[in-house]
Write a structure and sequence with these properties.
Keywords: Metal-binding. Pfam families: Lactamase_B, Rhodanese. This is Rhodanese-like protein. It is built from 16 helices and 22 strands. The strands form 4 sheets. It has a 6-stranded mixed β-sheet, covered by helices on one side. Strands 7-8-9-10-11-12 form a 6-stranded mixed β-sheet. A 5-stranded parallel β-sheet has the order 13-17-16-14-15. The chain has 3 domains: 237 residues, Ribonuclease Z/Hydroxyacylglutathione hydrolase-like (Metallo-beta-lactamase, Chain A, 4-Layer Sandwich), CATH 3.60.15; 108 residues, 3-Layer(aba) Sandwich (Oxidized Rhodanese, domain 1), CATH 3.40.250.10; 107 residues, 3-Layer(aba) Sandwich (Oxidized Rhodanese, domain 1). Helix 3 links the parallel strand 10 and strand 11. The longest helix is centred in the middle third of the chain and has 16 residues.
Length: 471
């Protein structure tokens, strides 16, 4: 039996490839499915099953395209009701993949259909658990997502189900089982996930707060719900795409990979309601960008911030990327359901600049310049980090408007007085700067290097408080 984790860092997502005797299975695939097909072909294997642990919220799964291209069967756990052909497994139903077996164990809690898959090798030994969002390394899946799709599934009800699933279905299993979760640190599907992406069940029983054997149901629910932040707005929309179906990734790529000259790009921008999305790095964006474009850099949590800040997943999008990054950008948009890229600027921003067309810039200052301004002018400062980051340590006198809520707080940002923006390192504040610039603000500067750079100066800050005390 061969089991491989295929990890995608920008989404903190893990898919899994299982192969035995020329048959293969894929668990929780991403939208672009060719890498899984290529992996199976490398082994000379046929993909027999696509196993889904649940209807995902943070990404659009590749189950439909993968099944269509390989004739594999899609498998969900009990209670799942997809709008397409799929096998709905019974609790403890066993599937054969070559000489090994996969047993579906219904573990509701994160969602009602959530299912863990036990991997049993060719010798009949129980090897590991593909746990989806039921059990992470250091954490368990948040129980508040399904209620955004089904209102009467409250987070308290789901947390109670998860308590039972963990204690009755998973904790009694052998300590030497390997845990293979769907996500690692950085995912919004949990709150305290480890950077490690696998572990033994025995270690998790010792170190995972949610698996403490002496926890009562009430204690579990309280600890699980404490500190949960509002989930990104695109999560329910991704759930519905995963339930109802979606357009093939091939069609999405074909539409998005339309190359446009500067003149064509300008015409399309003027004749449609398309959003101009610039995925270059912050340093490059700051020194020149197309008016009204938004910067969300591809080099960080691109898909997450697209989902947070672009409310309509059907929004038409025109792309400005680094040369050679066009397909990657379209693909990463499609991973979270943004399928309506309608073209990109051929040659990138350089083409726009060389055509002599108007462009904008964002003024940036160094941390040292900020320190001097802070001492002499008492400037208005907006910190766009998360509330927990701001609460743990911030510049005295700064106001906190987290980036994910900036559109709801625009009235608090002055247009008649100068102000300064910063985040942790510069990525999020440049996104904020581009949004403000698009909305008509021009009376601000951004701190290059953000709070990390400012903290090396003598600007007064609040005392550091361990973030764990803020949960």
């Amino acid at each position: 039996m061969k089991i491989e984790q295929i990890y995608t860092g920008c989404l903190a997502h893990a898919a899994y490839y299982l192969e035995s005797n020329g048959e293969a299975a894929i668990f929780d695939p991403l939208r672009e499915v060719q890498p899984y097909i290529n992996r199976a072909e490398k082994d000379g294997a046929q993909i027999k099953y696509v196993f889904e642990t649940h209807f995902h919220a943070d990404f659009v799964s590749g189950h439909l395209d993968l099944a269509k291209k390989t004739n594999a069967k899609i498998v969900y756990g009990p209670t799942a009701k997809p709008a397409f052909e799929a096998t709905i497994a019974e609790d403890n139903q066993v599937f054969e993949v070559g000489a090994c077996k996969v047993k579906a164990i219904h573990t509701p809690g994160h969602t009602m259909e959530s299912t863990t898959y036990m991997l049993i090798d060719e010798n009949g030994k129980e090897h590991g658990l593909i746990t989806g969002d039921t059990l992470f390394i250091g954490d368990v899946g948040r129980p508040d997502l399904a209620q955004h799709v089904i209102a009467d599934l409250t987070q308290e009800k789901l947390a109670s189900h998860l308590y039972d699933s963990l204690r009755n279905k998973i904790m009694p299993l052998s300590d030497d089982l390997i845990i293979y979760p769907n996500h690692g640190a950085g995912s919004a599907c949990g709150k305290m996930m480890s950077k490690e992406t696998t572990d033994t069940l025995g270690n998790q029983k010792r170190f995972n707060y949610a698996l403490r054997p002496d926890m009562t149901r009430e204690e579990f629910i309280k600890e699980l719900l404490n500190g949960l932040t509002t989930p990104p707005g695109y999560f329910p929309k991704n759930v519905l795409l995963n339930i109802k179906g979606y357009e093939s990734i091939d069609e999405v790529l074909d539409r998005g990979k339309k190359s446009l000259s500067a003149e064509e790009f300008e015409i399309v921008a003027n004749e449609t309601d398309a959003l101009i999305l610039d995925s270059r790095q912050t340093d490059d964006f700051a020194v020149g960008f197309i008016p009204n474009s938004i910067n969300i850099g591809l080099d960080s949590n691109f898909a997450m911030w697209v989902g947070e800040l672009i409310p309509d997943i059907k929004q038409e999008i025109l792309l400005v990327t680094d040369e050679g990054k066009e397909e990657e950008t379209i693909t990463r948009l499609a991973r979270v359901g943004y399928d309506h890229s309608i073209g990109f600027l051929k040659g990138g921003f350089k083409t726009w600049r060389e055509s002599g067309k108007e462009f904008n810039t964002i003024k940036r200052i160094s941390a040292e310049e900020f320190a001097n301004t802070y001492k002499n002018d008492e400037p208005i400062v907006f910190d766009v980090r998360k509330k927990s980051e701001f609460a743990s340590e911030h510049i005295l006198g700064a106001s906190n408007i987290p980036l994910n809520s900036i559109n709801e707080h625009l009235a608090e940002i002055p247009k008649d007085k100068p102000f300064i923006l910063h985040c942790a390192g510069g990525y999020r504040s440049m996104i904020a700067a581009s949004i403000l610039k698009q909305r008509g603000w021009d009376n601000f500067v951004d701190v290059k290097g953000g709070f990390a750079a400012i903290s090396k100066t003598d600007v007064p800050r609040t005392e550091y408080v361990c973030p764990s005390t803020l949960l």
